[in-house]
Amino acid sequence: MPDKVAIIIPAYNEAATINDIVLRCLAITKNVFVIDDGSVDETLAIIQQTTAHLLINPANQGKAASMWRGMQAALENGAEFIITLDADGQHAPEDIPRILDAAKKNPEKIIIGSRMSEKSAFPKKRYYANSVANFFISWAAGYEIEDSQSGFRLYPASLVRKLKIPYDKSRSFVFESEALIEGARMGYTSIFVAIPALYQENARASHFRSVLDIVRITLMVAWKINSRFLYLPGLYRGVIRPALRRARFDELGFHGLLSLLLSNLLIVGTLGLSYIWHWFRVLRLAKTSATDAREPNVVIVLGMRLKENKPVNDFVLRLERALNLYQKYDSIKYIILGGFTGSSRLTEAQCGADYLVSQGMSANNIHREESSRHTFENLVCARDLIKSSGSGRPVIISNRYHLARCRVFAKELGLDCELCAAEENFIFGPKNFFQIGLEAYYVHWFMVARLWSKITGAKFARHSSRKNIA
Q: Is the entire prediction scored with pTM above 0.70?
C-alpha cells in the first residue's frame, strides 16, 4: 500500500523541524512531496538534501495553494490516497500506518487524525475554538466531525479529483474546512483516528491569524449553511442527534424525555429559582461532606469514564480515598463499579481494581461490578451486594460535586448509606463551579421526574441489578 500513498507537506519557514519530519515520512513511503512556500530561512536548502519530491513556490502563496499543488503532483504520480500533515512537528508521521489501516477498511472515507480526546494537552483557547468550529462545520457537512481543524488527514484520490473549491492565499486556512463540507455533499464523509495533541513549548508561532482566518472560515461556513436555507437536516444529523446519542436520551423513553421538558419549563417558569435552590443544596453537601467513615460493612467506589484506558484525575481521587479507608478497615469488601464506557478497552471496575492493587490493596478485598454505565446503574447493581454484607452502613465514595446526585439516587433505591468525599477539601474554582451547576441540573431533572411519576403513575426504565461480578 505505501506505493499507492503520497504524503503532502506544505512548508513555510520550517527550518527547525522540516528535516526530521521529511525523513520520518520517507521511512514510510518514497512518495513524499514537500512544497516550499517561499521560505526565507534555510527550509529550501534542507529539503534539497533529502530524497523527497520538491515543489517550489517562488513567493508565498499560502497553505491552501501549496496543498493543492502537492495534491495535483501526487495524482500525476498515480497516488490512490493522499496524506497531508504539517511540517512544524504537531503531527507524528509514526501515526500514518494507523491512518492507512483505517483507509484500507474505508477506502472512500476521509480519515482525520483527531486530537480532541486529549483535552488536557490542548491550549485552552485553541480547544474551545476547535469545539466551536466542529459545531458549525458538522452542521454544514450534515454529520458529526470530531476534529475539523486537524490538518493530519488522508483523502481518497477520487475525492481530490472532484474537488472544485478555491485555494488562493485568502483561503489558506479555509480550504481544509471547505473540503470536508464539499466532500460530504459528494458522499465522502469522515472517520477519525485518535492521535496525540503535540504542542512543543518552543514551537514557532502559528501561521494561523486568529481573527482574520476565523472570520474567513465563519463566512464560508455561514454561506454553506444559508445557501441551503439553514440546512436544518444537517443541524439535526451533525449536531443534535450525536448529542442525544452521547447523552443516551434514546434510552429515556417518552416519559423520560417529557420529564426533561417539564424540568426545563419549571426552571424557566420560576425564573430559575427552582434550579438555584437545588444548586445551593448540591453546593452545601459538596462543602460539608466527611472524608472518613464509621465502621462501614462495605465501601462502594463509583466508576468513572476512562481516558486512554487509564483513570482520570477525579477517579484517582475516589480510589485514593478508598485506599485511605483501607488502612483502617482492611477486612471488608471494596466494590468497584463500572463497565465499558466510551472507546476504552478496560471496564472502569477493572481499571480501578488494578490501580488499588498497584497501590497495595489486597485483591481479595476487591469485588468488581462490570456492567453498569452511569451513576443510577452503579447503585442499582450494588444494591444486592450491599444487602448481603452484614451489619453496618455501606459507604459510597465519590467526588464532592457528585455526592448530591448519589444521595437522591440512593434514597430512591432504598439504600441507607453514608457518603464519603473523595477530595480532602472543597475548592470553589471554575471547574467545580461548572460541575456543581451541572449536577444541580441533573438533580432538578430527577426530582421533577419522580414527582411526575407519582402524579401520573408513569413508569420509568428500571435497571435490575446485574450479575457480572468478579
A: no
